[in-house]
Amino acid sequence: MTGGIATGKSYVRGRLEKLGVATIDSDALAREVVASGTAGFTEIVHQFGPGVISKSGELDRQKLGAIVFSDPASRRTLEAIVHPLVKRATDAWFASLDPAAHPFAVADIPLLYEVDREKDFDEVIVVAADPDTQVKRVMQRNDLSEVEARKRLSAQLPIDEKIRRADHVIRTNDSLADTDKQVKRVWESLKAAK
Prior knowledge:
Layout: E1 2-3, H1 9-18, E2 22-25, H2 26-32, H3 39-48, H4 61-68, H5 72-96, E3 105-108, E4 125-128, H6 131-142, H7 146-154, H8 159-165, E5 168-171, H9 176-193
Parallel strand pairs: 1-4, 2-3, 4-5
């Protein structure tokens, strides 16, 4: 499962979990693989300097975000560190699942297309919202200005392109009840395919 920033992927993942689907959140994995004391943390500090460490000794995500979302080369450097670590953790999670208990599972990977991982999966679900809705959500959720929110949005493949490449699309512009109906339809389709 993928989609743009602030399209509602976490909500959709939660609804799938309520339906009994095993899911994993690569954003959570990305935080784990760069936690203080990990090889990922050490490499990020080596590449970006001690200024990206917070007073608590963890990565200062706001400082690091300000660097990588204003400089594409820095973003690529960060991605080259984090993405392979997240891929290994995701692959290990899938390998740990009992196929009898979990005929299918869902990995929430926001940058699935950007890192060319769609070929690793049988089907792709795209969670989509219109770009203006995404910007508003990012501004509210992350306490960012509109300019900062749009920078983050522009760092990802446009949502229309993700929709074009998807096997399933769940649109989250309308009510949660409408989103829930779409999630159930996708779940039923995936169940029927297994």
